[in-house]
Amino acid sequence: xxxxxxxxxxxxxxxxxxxxxxxxxxxxxxxxxxxxxxxxxxxxxxxxxxxxxxxxxxxxxxxxxxxxxxxxxxxxxxxxxxxxxxxxxxxxxxxxxxxxxxxxxxxxxxxxxxxxxxxxxxxxxxxxxxxxx
Length: 133
Ligand code: FES
Fold this sequence. Notes:
This protein has 1 helix and 9 strands. The protein has one helix at residues 48-58, and strands at residues 4-7, 10-13, 19-28, 32-41, 79-82, 85-88, 98-102, 109-111, 114-115. The strands form 3 sheets. Strands 4-3-7-5-6 form a 5-stranded mixed beta sheet, with helices on one face. Strands 1-2 form a two-stranded antiparallel sheet. It has a two-stranded antiparallel sheet with strand order 8-9. The structure holds FE2/S2 (inorganic) cluster. FE2/S2 (inorganic) cluster binds at residues 67-70, 73-78, 88, 90.
């Protein structure tokens, strides 16, 4: 419970700011993965995807994760593992605690939280491996 704090003539209610700590698997299949922690301002009602978008905008524009519809639960692109469970990041609530994020375990890793989710027949060929000579 927050305490009133005397501010000279005024009494001001101070609420401690809360943070969510997102511990994110970073890296690639070839280069290996490490965990990197980011503290994100917490507001009730935010999604984990909101937290990831905040990190990308304010801390690391190179963080790789996938999304499209943002909480319409239509694109299914934000699927990842949060605390070991496969969930949609746009539906998972951000919580003011440490949360561990990782890419899907059963799909080839592209980078960070992005895994290859397209069916093999629909994937683009890797650069230099398109069959042309
Ligand atoms: S962003 Fe589309 S389902 Fe999550």
